[in-house]
Write a structure and sequence with these properties.
five-stranded antiparallel sheet, six-stranded antiparallel sheet
């Protein structure tokens, strides 16, 4: 049974009302701001500990931060069914999980939320470490002395000495430095050289903050003290690190994870940047328990990072519906432009466009070259998929060797969709000619660029991720656009002579 047109309007109105009501409730009752810049910056960090238990008592100790420099911890929770949990504080803060018996794969979660607070930049960084007496093997003693003497001549204090040493350790042509690195990791080598020069330093572990990252490991950094100041150095890269971009997780140089009663243990980290008003921070404990505060923020951070992109797909679908139903553009595939727009979000627009044109153009040439083989449809598409994967692999390798890091993300393009697109364009070329191929290709690119322009806006990303009720508003918009049965904008071009004659006759 077909619904009346008025019923569609009522359905859309109800969806808009429910979506806006939920969003207003999130804003008014739970302090979630409408604008991304009108709130405190928060970082949600989740540590996932995995191990294989052997049927014996298990004790897992994970180093956890309190208030790392530049951040204030505002909330923390864990998920560890069957385990007892204690937070211990002595020289450092650790979370300790214990159980009498466990077997098989065990997964423990620790999650904390940190508020960016620049006033805590020099607080809780710890006292300078004691300078240790350093001894080297005879083969390394001469190498360490020469590296240190060269760096000493080009430095004025402890910090500049650390910079000079970090540069030399990153110089692959420096044979003395490479000899030291063959025996010790870069961070350990830098600390030993600084202690040899009587400069206080230690190895610490931190996370490089980047929104939406998953399955990350702690990075070793070298903390150097000099005249009441401290700096972070990445000994592997040979550079000084901006402390605002790093959250120090373990600052004493001790172990991050210790496991008794298990094997094959590892810890990985996921991170997500969010924003919340001061009022919302004050209600942190009650917000997470509210049923009506419908959000995905209770999910593990690795899943939240995925949803940041997934929740933008309805907006892309809305753009496709608008351009196909209202404007009248033809696209190659219904929602292929949305997936291309998602790839553009990761690669940026210009590299994404170049990559898309190269892959599709190369795929069309290969498809035309094997047209005389008379393969069946499934075989043709399979061959095109293999060719697309080969093109993408080639572009990735070339981009890496040419220094274009954005080209390394070319694998984000939906390969199966690209293969079907190439096959459809090839058939269209044979049946209708190149004009229709270029028309659909241009329509797909225009739609993808428009979807990218909307989806890459910080305000849009903030609203769609934090206010799930707006998904209903987008759904209502799609329903309203889908009920349109009038002329498309591009179709009006055909009636231009008629309109001109009508205007002249009057």
């Amino acid at each position: 049974m077909k619904l009346a047109r008025s019923s569609l309007f009522w359905i859309a109105a109800v969806l808009i009302l429910v979506g806006l009501t939920h969003s207003a409730h999130r804003h008014l009752e739970h302090g979630v701001p409408w604008l991304p810049g009108a709130a405190q910056t928060l970082w949600d960090i989740e540590a996932t500990v995995q191990l294989e238990a052997e049927g014996n008592p298990v004790k897992v100790t994970l180093a956890v931060p309190d208030d790392p420099p530049g951040f204030r911890r505002v909330a923390e929770h864990t998920a560890s069914p069957g385990y007892g949990l204690n937070f211990l504080e002595d020289e450092r803060r650790v979370a300790e999980w214990t159980t009498r018996e466990a077997s098989g794969t065990q997964v423990l979660y620790y999650r904390a939320q940190f508020q960016v607070d620049p006033t805590l930049g020099s607080r809780n960084m710890g006292d300078p470490p004691e300078i240790r007496s350093i001894s080297w093997s005879p083969s390394l003693q001469l190498a360490s002395t020469q590296v240190l003497e060269q760096a000493w001549l080009q430095s004025a204090d402890g910090l500049s000495l650390a910079r000079a040493l970090a540069r030399r350790l990153n110089d692959r042509d420096n044979q003395n430095a490479q000899l030291l690195l063959s025996e010790y990791p870069a961070s350990t080598t830098l600390v030993r050289l600084l202690h040899q020069a009587e400069v206080p330093a230690r190895t610490i572990h931190g996370l490089i903050l980047e929104d939406g990252r998953r399955r990350q490991s702690l990075q070793p950094f070298v903390q150097v003290f000099d005249d009441g100041e401290w700096r972070l150095f990445d000994a592997t890269a040979g550079t000084q690190v901006n402390p605002d971009e790093v959250l120090l997780w373990e600052g004493t140089g001790g172990p991050v994870l210790e496991v008794e009663g298990g094997r094959n243990s590892q810890v990985s980290f996921s991170m997500l940047e969010t924003r919340q008003s001061a009022a919302g921070l004050g209600e942190q404990g009650t917000v997470t328990e509210a049923v009506f505060n419908l959000s995905i923020h209770s999910l593990p951070l690795s899943e939240q990072a995925i949803f940041q992109s997934i929740l933008l797909l309805p907006l892309g679908a809305l753009v496709v519906v608008f351009f196909r139903v209202i404007v009248g553009l033809e696209t190659s595939g219904t929602f292929m432009p949305v997936l291309i727009a998602l790839a553009f979000l990761e690669m940026n627009l210009l590299p994404g466009l170049i990559t898309f044109l190269l892959v599709v153009g190369g795929g069309l040439l290969m498809r035309q070259a094997m047209a005389h083989l008379n393969l069946l449809l499934v075989a043709r598409v399979s061959v095109v998929i293999v060719c697309v994967i080969g093109l993408i692999s080639l572009l990735s390798v070339l981009s890496f060797h040419l220094g274009f890091t954005s080209g390394l993300k070319v694998a984000l393009f939906p390969m199966i969709i690209l293969a079907w697109t190439i096959e459809r364009m090839s058939i269209l070329w044979e049946e209708e000619g190149p004009r229709d191929v270029f028309k659909q290709g241009a329509g797909s690119l225009i739609t993808a660029i428009a979807a990218f322009g909307l989806m890459q806006m910080n305000l849009v990303q903030h609203l769609m991720f934090n206010f799930l009720g707006l998904q209903l508003v987008v759904l209502a918009g799609i329903i309203l656009l889908g009920s349109y049965t009038g002329y498309r904008l591009l179709e009006l071009w055909r009636f231009r002579p008629f309109l001109t004659e009508g205007g002249g006759s009057r």
